[in-house]
Amino acid sequence: MALGEFALIESLFRRPQDARRGRVAVGGGDDCAVLTVQAGEQWAVSTDTLVEGRHFLSTVDPEALGHKALAVNLSDLAACGAQPQACTLNLTLPRTDPAWLQGFARGFHALADEHGIVLAGGDTTGGPLSITVTVMGTVPAGAALLRSGAKAGDDLWVSHPTDGGIGDARLALEVFRGRARLCQAGFEAARQRMERPQPRVALGLALRGLAHAAIDLSDGLTGDLAHVLAASGVGAQLWWSALPRSRWMAEQPAEGQREALLGGGDDYELLVAAPAAERQTVVDRAAACGLGLSRIGRIVAGAGLKVFEDEAAGHAGTGAWPSERLPRGFDHFLSGSTDP
Amino acid sequence: MALGEFALIESLFRRPQDARRGRVAVGGGDDCAVLTVQAGEQWAVSTDTLVEGRHFLSTVDPEALGHKALAVNLSDLAACGAQPQACTLNLTLPRTDPAWLQGFARGFHALADEHGIVLAGGDTTGGPLSITVTVMGTVPAGAALLRSGAKAGDDLWVSHPTDGGIGDARLALEVFRGRARLCQAGFEAARQRMERPQPRVALGLALRGLAHAAIDLSDGLTGDLAHVLAASGVGAQLWWSALPRSRWMAEQPAEGQREALLGGGDDYELLVAAPAAERQTVVDRAAACGLGLSRIGRIVAGAGLKVFEDEAAGHAGTGAWPSERLPRGFDHFLSGSTDP
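Structure tokens for the assembled complex are given below, as produced in the milestone run.
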């Protein structure tokens, strides 16, 4: 990359106000960024790569992409109940397009500022477009929310906007693919959910010391729940009618709803297992974060995952859905396999 | 990526012995890795992306590539005087080639084990081949070696193998490009320097509290020195005859030597500014690490970089090389510009 291009990228991503802010003792521009740590805390680290054509289309608004590249990583910190502190950004770019870079930087920095997270370093190189973000956050020692703590009898919760649900990101994707239809307003709303996911950082912090286990929904409800079940050595039931859905989702054909709600990814909501005795506290804390939290099932002893029509059917243990009503790929998880 | 491919990658990169080793309280497999921190320390973080066709050829030995992807990052920790602790690995792969992945993992893990560093998480996705590694290390608070501490009067040092020098990685590249010739033994030695750089971690640790500034040579001697000069607000002189060179380098034509020694990148040796009063201590500490350390110049007041034939000429301040004797691209740095 020519020196002028470096200068442009540097001007966009190295911000004077970031040089020594928050935990940053030495900012980008040295061989390493140096972060201050405090006694009694642990550092939570997560990283994700987004590749053009696989995780996003070349036509996506760069500002939305900058937002999403950071959001999907912050969502991992949220799922651990960690306070975001710093991040690094590795950009591989096929060309230097100032307008594209400015848009990307705007989306990235806006979300970083919202969460008080500092861009502490990174790398820019030429090549096929891909974006790797690594985030670092802090938790009091031993307080991280893990996938492995779910216990039989726990309530199973999923977060969502107070006026929305899960699965809308998948619904938007299906519209792009020509396999689903939405009115203009519904499409715009679903597209926002796909392109501008909101990491549930405040909720993750609020559930520390309360939830037994948490994960963020990136692969889809059943796939991510399977990770929790495998890590915790338990099973679960889901109650179909309890799954939160937007009004556009509620208007979709049954099969489309099943695919989007049970199988759809890219929601970045939190899936949480918490003791039933704390039910009201859990709801109150989500409300304090301005979020809906729906009780969608429960953790049971044993292994595997069953879907029932509603809570009553689940408690009776009768009428578990046959596999042909479940989205393709779901069978795998019914077996209680530990494959990711 | 299909589930079988995930399982293969997981089996190669998630090692049971890494799950809770060193600073890892929670290893890969949860939303975040969780790292233990201790009072009074800071965390140093660095990240680099290697892209096929730009940083390595598609034909490179995957084991060497696994080594190098981690080595170039450990070199940044070395330059900060940080103790390596943990890393993350993001692999973007065009296909799942078990033999290639096994080789890559072997090279990566061997170097990780040598430095006691734990692979704490990562991401694998499909797409054009690229590799991002992020490393995390620890330093006592305030003890990190930075680029910004060089002072007028400091000695300028560069590390190297006791029987070698700098610039050999560039020399190997020039042979690949058909622009230089080496005997078979010389080519193999130079190629090792290019493909298997050895991060100078022990030397970085040994120079903590002693050196005023350090940087690792990734872009080339003059380019990296320019970063130190800009960050420290000083100038420097280099002494041509003092630059350490392998016997194969010494046999190269003068112009080739100048390009490789002054401009060549990918050395991953440490360039160090240290007080002249500590000269013997500096040498002793490098020797204790089994490394050569050559005094190649000195830091001066003002800005910019001058090359002299030898130390005597430098001290006399006469006979600075004219720009036409310097490698192309060098002029830029003579101006004392702060552009990277």
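Chain A touches chain B through 68 residues (CB under 8 Å). The first strand of chain A starts at residue 24 and ends at 26. Further analysis is deferred to the final report.
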